[in-house]
């Protein structure tokens, strides 16, 4: 049975590579990997780390690409590829526009869709944008829904998705973390006297004023707390780079670097004092590592970490971000409360569980 995994961005690669490794290990499955090429430099190091070679790359990325262009190019190029390859199942992950277009294309071709990381919701179509639309749409056309947690399953059930096609599998991000985080990792980016804040920001809806507010708060923190150093791997998006340069060019306590290799990033996360981010995946990783995260957004689809106490939504207003960061820097009890390691995302065997379910699906046993 031929299973084609289609994805295109860094986080999808990090969370799909463990699944692909598992697919490759099964005798009855032929695994085919198709990259959309939505990301380029940011994705390749992940494929290299996990030693996975793609069979196809649609190479769609352009500078400052639009959502329409990503969607149209993928739909158009998959038309020919799916007719040629005729996979028995298509696997997509999460909520990117690559995943959305691939699922839609599979649906148009009557090919069963398996959605890894199904059921995440904010029910706000503009936050995150366009991801909430993407994931709801993907779940509409999916034949197997791999929900990372019971909470995600409950969301799907509340939308009347058939219980027989929903499976709680854990999140494959934990499978990936198991292979990267290493206690003896030696971090050169900070010295012992520094408290390290790790910063990332890339959400489309944050580009513009919200991002400027975030960066102002970071500047204020480094001004008021000289023991703090901020490491900021800057997303490749030119719009983000422009704002970041504007705000941090003269701040030597904010170290802007290129996107990190995922091995380094996971280990730097593990060594950092706290994390400021609008990322989705980082919320899961930090929850499992027990690292406090202040979420630079108004919503989260990862309430498990909020319930566990590791994540806190702080929005994108300068003052609030500053005050919440200050609290974590000065209030030990609050810091300790948010640093408890909990893991709502499974034991690192999500990929195995997912592929077992796929095999059962092909055997007609679901
Ligand atoms: C995409 C996803 C988002 C996900 C994020 C993970 C959509 C709509 N957005 O957003 O859900 O959270 O990836 O990082 O699917 N660029 C490069 N090289 C790269 C990658 C990007 O130069 O390797 C630049 C290009 O100019 C590109 C721009 O960044 O046009 C934006 O990339 P895009 O994939 O459209 O948006 P992301 O913000 O990365
Ligand atoms: N990440 C990475 N290098 C970096 C920043 C992030 O490898 O410099 C990893 C991070 O560990 C997580 C994923 O990229 O697994 C998150 O990607 P991103 O924040 O771009 O997307 P999102 O999760 O919000 O979709």
TrEMBL record:
Chain coiled-coil ranges: none
Database matches in InterPro entries: UDP_GlcNAc_Epimerase_2_dom, WecB-like
Record-annotated UDP-N-acetylglucosamine 2-epimerase domain positions: 21-359
Keywords assigned by UniProt, alphabetized: Isomerase
Species for this entry: Lachnospira eligens (strain ATCC 27750 / DSM 3376 / VPI C15-48 / C15-B4) (Eubacterium eligens)
Protein origin, superkingdom: Bacteria
Pfam family, one: Epimerase_2
The keyword Transmembrane helix is assigned to this record: no
Family: Belongs to the UDP-N-acetylglucosamine 2-epimerase family.
Protein name: UDP-N-acetylglucosamine 2-epimerase (non-hydrolyzing)
Key word Isomerase present: yes
EC number, as in UniProt: 5.1.3.14
Molecular function GO labels: UDP-N-acetylglucosamine 2-epimerase activity
């Amino acid at each position: 049975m031929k299973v084609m995994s289609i994805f295109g961005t860094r986080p999808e690669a990090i969370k799909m590579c463990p699944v692909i490794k598992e697919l490759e290990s099964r005798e009855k499955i032929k695994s085919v990997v198709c990259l959309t090429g939505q990301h380029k430099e940011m994705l390749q190091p992940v494929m290299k780390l996990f030693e996975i070679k793609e069979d196809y790359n649609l190479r769609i990325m352009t500078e400052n690409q639009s959502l329409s262009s990503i969607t149209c190019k993928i739909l158009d190029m998959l038309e020919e590829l799916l007719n040629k390859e005729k996979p028995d199942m298509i696997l997509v992950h999460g909520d990117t526009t690559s995943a959305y277009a691939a699922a839609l294309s599979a649906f148009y071709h009557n090919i069963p869709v398996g959605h890894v990381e199904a059921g995440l919701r904010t029910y706000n179509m503009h936050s995150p944008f366009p991801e909430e639309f993407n994931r709801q749409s993907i779940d509409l056309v999916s034949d197997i829904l791999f929900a990372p947690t019971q909470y995600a399953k409950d969301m799907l059930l509340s939308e009347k998705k058939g219980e027989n096609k929903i499976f709680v599998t854990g999140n494959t991000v934990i499978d990936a973390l198991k292979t990267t985080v290493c206690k003896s990792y030696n971090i050169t980016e900070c010295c012992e006297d520094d408290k390290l804040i790790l910063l990332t920001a890339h959400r489309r809806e944050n580009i513009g004023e919200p991002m400027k507010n975030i960066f102002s708060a970071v500047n204020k923190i480094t001004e008021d707390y000289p023991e703090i150093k901020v490491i900021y791997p800057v997303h490749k998006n030119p719009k983000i780079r422009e704002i970041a340069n504007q705000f941090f060019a003269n701040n030597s306590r904010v170290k802007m670097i290129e996107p990190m290799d995922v091995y380094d990033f996971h280990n730097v996360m593990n060594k950092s004092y706290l994390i400021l981010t609008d990322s989705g995946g980082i919320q899961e990783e930090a929850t499992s590592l027990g690292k406090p995260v202040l979420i630079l957004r108004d919503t989260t689809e990862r309430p498990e970490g909020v319930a566990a106490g590791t994540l806190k939504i702080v929005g994108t207003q300068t003052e609030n971000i500053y005050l919440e960061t200050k609290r974590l820097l000065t209030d030990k009890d609050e810091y300790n409360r948010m640093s408890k390691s909990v893991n709502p995302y499974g034991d690192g065997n999500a990929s195995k569980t997912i592929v077992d379910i796929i095999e059962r699906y092909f055997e007609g046993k679901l």
